[in-house]
Amino acid sequence: MMTLFAVCFFVGLVLTVLVTFFGGDFFEVHGDTGGAHGHGGPSFFNLSSLLASLTVFGGMGYMLSEVGMASSLLILLIAAGAGLFVGWLFFLFYAKVIYKHDDSMKESDFALNGQLGKLIVPINGKGIGEMVIVMQGTKRSISARSELGESIAKGARVVILHMDKGVATVSQFSD
């Protein structure tokens, strides 16, 4: 049992040091909501929380074994409880302090469906025109084609229905 606790402690400690110096945003478990794959918030199963739990579980179990606690089951339960508690504290810190101020881009920041824009090059029949949209304060121009194959004049306001290979399928927008 001492070997299990020692291995958990040292593996957790080494991985914590590696994640601290090299980053560890690559591992986070998210539930699928069935819709868009945006982040609704941090998961308890983030790498920092898991490593904190593993390290404390191993350290607490090793310490309790060393002080001569006789019951292996009691040691295991106390170590698991301590690991979960510290993992929960790390999650709270992550959710309330770090994630709250995380302004990194999300997939939804790039979703163009429903975006309003203005044609700067007219769409002639089944041809392709060009439209300009404003996303996050920046003007972007993209190719556009009419949903029903009708012509749409330059300057008309259009709404993006969907994107296909970099070309927006649009419909004329009326107030």
UniProtKB/TrEMBL annotation:
Residues 2-100 form the Membrane protein NfeD2 N-terminal transmembrane domain. Keywords: Membrane, Transmembrane, Transmembrane helix. It holds the Pfam family NfeD_TM. The chain crosses the membrane at residues 44-64, 73-95. It comes from the Bacteria. The keyword Cell membrane does not apply. InterPro entries: NA-bd_OB-fold (IPR012340), NfeD2_TM (IPR058653). This is Membrane protein NfeD2 N-terminal transmembrane domain-containing protein. It comes from Paenibacillus silvestris. The lineage of its organism: Bacteria, Bacillati, Bacillota, Bacilli, Bacillales.
